[in-house]
Amino acid sequence: MSATAMRIALVGNPNCGKTALFNQLTGGRQKVANYAGVTVERKEGRFVAPSGRTLHVLDLPGAYSFEATSPDEAITRDVCYGRYPGEAAPDLIVCVADATNLRLHLRFVLEVRRLGRPVVLALNMMDAARRRGIVIDVDALSRRLGVPVVETIAVKRGGAQALIERIDASVPKVTPAPIDEATVEQLHAEVRSILADTVTLPRDTVALDDAIDRWVLHPVFGLAILATLMFLVFQAVFSWAQPVMDAIQAGIAALGTTVTGFLPEGSALHSLLNDGLFAGLGAVLVFLPQILILFLFILVLEESGYLPRAAFLLDRMMFRVGLTGRAFIPLLSSFACAIPGIMATRSIQDPRDRLTTILVAPLMTCSARLPVYTLLIAAFIPDRTVAGVFNLQGIVLFTLYFAGIFSALGVAFVIKRLRKDKSEHALIMELPSYRLPNVRDIALGLWERAVIFLKRVGGIILALTVLLWFLSSFPGPPEGATQPAIDYSIAGRLGRLLEYVFAPIGFNWQICIALVPGLAAREVAVAALGTVYAMSGSDDALASQLGPVISHQWSLATALSLLAWYVFAPQCMSTLAVIRRETNSWRNVAVAAGYLFGLAYLASLATYQIARALT
Amino acid sequence: MTTFEWVQGVVIGTIVAASAWMAFRKLLPKTSTRVLAHVSASLNRDGRAPSLRSLGRRLQPAAATGSCGDGCGSCNSCGPAVAPTEAQPLQFKPRRPS
Fold it and tell me: A5-204 belongs to which homologous superfamily?
């Protein structure tokens, strides 16, 4: 074993606080939340102990047992057994256990102990255990297990100090592994015996949790509460964001006027800054407040422990359409972004269930669709109150999100029928204790989302906007040209060609141009529309406000058709790349892209033709 | 051509070239890494001028990150680099008759 770079693995049952502890030790900012299955792959970090030693820390996916039943559990098993390719067995295993739920977590501790490697038990969430009146005789527990035991509170600053000191003092001796193989029943019996000797438990569950769950898990009231929560989220996205969006829009317009004021009107550089950067990037940047409000709700729900309850509520309905209740968390993650959602399917044991979830995950409305949706809704749906309380624009946004959900359920149902699946699936899922979200964690989470969005605007969106400006500007118009310059450019000609394909669904050539760079990332379509309309001779005063321009030039049928397109179309190459990686098959990528584009075209065609007939 | 037009051409050319390279790196990371490695190797060959060899070394791409573009709206990536075994491709086995 190296004296300078000890390798430590954090293992334990799901949702016991391994990643929070990992963040405490390494200063990392890996995602944490109050439900099982957040970490589905191995994460590595390092920290320098007070003695000056460098320690490598591995954060492993949660596992209930070394009898792995899902791909993420297999990673933990392989690393602990030293079978993971390119990875030596850890020098020390820190087994993390939820102090409020030792009855469940100690069984895995006993399994880890049998590996015969140095082990430290970190009793996490000790603050919650004390609040519930749980008394743990730590010394007695240490003696019974034969391993050092330390108390930790991973979500509080300095909460891992005892663990750091214990690791830094000396590596615990190798625990002698029992020779005989224990059965599951024997392990449970040993857990009961240890608990009887070392833990005083006032009651098995938290009274407050039980009281809340009586309502939240009720088959009727529970669903009503879930629907109301979702509805409120989308109302807030529209109602709360507007003042900040207006301020950002005004700021961008003022900055644009100041910066381009130094350049000669009509010069290419003036056009690049005005039509490309300020009209294009500005059109995307204004949606930052709405994205942050959406994530505020998602982060609060994740931290509170409500999400697994929602999975429990929806399990019956999801099973009927061919999805497992375990698909709920991956699908919910897909509301932020389909990529982590698809990766989170690793916690689904059945390969067919996993593939179905992967194929329908892109139908969940990711946050990149939000700029497109809100641009069109703000431009075409009147901002008026319905029933004296509800915002009509918020209702339309809510409907679009639900259109994605119902489409996913429909597609899953078709897949179920095609594969003639008659198998039964039982959902076994831990319901964590409710927790008040930590304000600092929520603020940090929002800050990270804002940074990611801004980096994206300054990265791929900026690059594609500049390229689109270039393709929309060159070649220049011939002598005596009467049309706007963009009509003679490469992008203009490409848009006219694509218009033949998309005319039946109501898309004009400007939309067709925007769809092409929008394949790289959905929000680029908004930036592209901003640039294309600014270069098509639209009034400069309107260039920084795309909404009024399109509301003058498009019909309602076209706007609704584009909304329908974005509910289904796989306008994100990264998602397709992740499907390829996770399924190891181009065929699955072709199936996903094919059915999503097909659905998008059909939905847009129906929407456009019906809306045109009615208006 | 006036001085302004000349400077304007250089500035726009640089911005467009940089944008094209950024888009290439973000959208086709593996291909761009291969291209960069090829260019780097051809510059950093015996017999080349020291300045070219130095440039070749600087262009040598870092180890592949496993990225696949710029990710979606919120996560900005498709996850950290993963070992091949960790990607856990789906494998189907014929169903046993019940």
Answer: P-loop containing nucleotide triphosphate hydrolases (3.40.50.300)
3-state secondary structure A191-259: HHHHHHHHEECCCCCCHHHHHHHHHHCCCCHHHHHHHHHHHHHHHHHHHHHHHHHHHHHHHHHHHHHHH
Nearest to A75 among B8, B76, B86 (CB): B86
Q: Which of residues 457 through 476 in chain A touch B, CB cutoff 8 A?
A: 459-460, 462-464, 466-467, 470
From CA A533, how far away is CA A351, in angstroms rounded?
47
Chain B closest CA to A336's CA: distance in Å? 6
Stretches where chain A sits below pLDDT 50 are 1-2, 539-543
ipTM of the complex: 0.73
CB A98 within 8 A of CB A173: no
Burial status of residue A566 (CB atoms within 10 A of its CB: 0-12, 13-18, 19 or more): buried
Contacts of B73 in chain A (CB under 8 A): 291, 336-337, 366-370, 453, 456, 521-523
C-alpha to C-alpha distance for A139 and A550, rounded to whole angstroms: 71
Strands A119-124 and A135-136: unpaired
Residue environment code for A267-288, b if the CB has 16+ CB neighbours within 10 A, otherwise e: ebbbbbbbbbbbbbbbbbbbbb
Q: A472-485 as b/e, with b when 16 or more CB fall inside 10 Å? A: bbeeeeeeeeeeeb
Task: Work out whether strand A92-98 and strand A5-12 pair parallel, antiparallel, or are unpaired.
Answer: parallel
Question: For position A612, what pLDDT does the model report?
Answer: 93
Task: Give bridge partners of residue A119 from the DSSP assignment.
Answer: A93
Q: In B44-89, which residue ranges form alpha helices assigned H by DSSP?
A: 50-59
Which residue among B74, B77, B78 sits closest to A336, beta carbon to beta carbon? B74
Residue with tokens 């964690």: A441
Selecting from B72, B76, B83 the residue whose C-beta is nearest the C-beta of A85 gives B83
- Residue A56 sits at φ, ψ, to 5 deg, of -90, 130
Give the per-residue pLDDT at B71.
43
Q: pLDDT, tens digit, for every residue of A136-162?
A: 999 999 998 889 999 999 888 878 888
